[in-house]
Amino acid sequence: MSNPTLHVADIPTLSSMAHHKGVKVVVDNTFAPMVLSPARLGADVVVHSVSKFISGGADIIAGAVCGPSSLINSMMDLHQGPLMILGPTMNAKVAFELSERIPHLSLRMKEHCHRAMVFATRMKKLGLKVIYPGLEEHPQHALLKSMANKDYGFGGILCLDMGTEERANRLMHHLQNCTQFGLMAVSLGYYETLMSCSGSSTSSEMNAEERELAGISPGLVRMSIGYSGTLEQRWSQFEKALARMHQTTN
Ligand SMILES: Cc1ncc(COP(=O)(O)O)c(C=O)c1O
């Protein structure tokens, strides 16, 4: 699932095309742990930023490369292996902390996905431009449904296209500072909702033309939906922020 546009790659087709040509397939599954199991769908290597959903606490910097032992062992080669040369051996205490969080990753992902689906559906009903793979009009909705593990849903990230950066920033200001719906931060996968305007933050290394080609509107707000508070309390905070935004516009 791509960042931030939430395009969904057809892993089985890409894997079969690549394997025909003798090419390895690497999938970054940071956005959809538990939801997708890329190795079962044909990918050779799966990478994760563990700092996100897998950690869940926005307090750990870690990553994972999952693949066949031949590849992992070659990466750990004492003289040539990038893992040895770049030194990413995880601190043992951090590894222990993560091992205590992985058992509830499944429950956490289900709630992230459930709330993202409810919010996306309600935001759409309000007439907002929502991008979420759980909505039927998403171009890869059926594809994701065919690949996803049962009962997880469609991911914990949704995007709202507010048109302009100014409107995106104004909405996030109200959501964070007036109604406490979430926090402005470029990370994701936390129990609080995190929001960022991708074009001027995580994708700002691209120029305007590249962003347009990638489908990243200047007003795109990426939201990593959290699960703290009750769903209805959070929704009412969202609606209040939107109403305030409209009041201040008029
Ligand atoms: C999809 C995806 N992969 C990888 C990363 C990189 O994460 P890290 O900075 O923890 O290496 C990010 C960061 O936002 C991401 O969104």
TrEMBL record:
Family: Belongs to the trans-sulfuration enzymes family.
Keyword Signal: no
Domain of life: Eukaryota
Annotated source species: Stephania japonica
Full protein name: Methionine gamma-lyase
Any one Gene Ontology cellular component term annotated for this protein: cytoplasm
InterPro entries recorded: Cys/Met-Metab_PyrdxlP-dep_enz, PyrdxlP-dep_Trfase, PyrdxlP-dep_Trfase_major, PyrdxlP-dep_Trfase_small
Cofactor: pyridoxal 5'-phosphate
PANTHER family referenced in this protein's UniProt entry, alphabetically: CYSTATHIONINE GAMMA-LYASE (PTHR11808:SF80), TRANS-SULFURATION ENZYME FAMILY MEMBER (PTHR11808)
Keywords recorded for this protein, A-Z: Pyridoxal phosphate
GO molecular function per UniProt: carbon-sulfur lyase activity; pyridoxal phosphate binding
BP-aspect Gene Ontology terms: transsulfuration
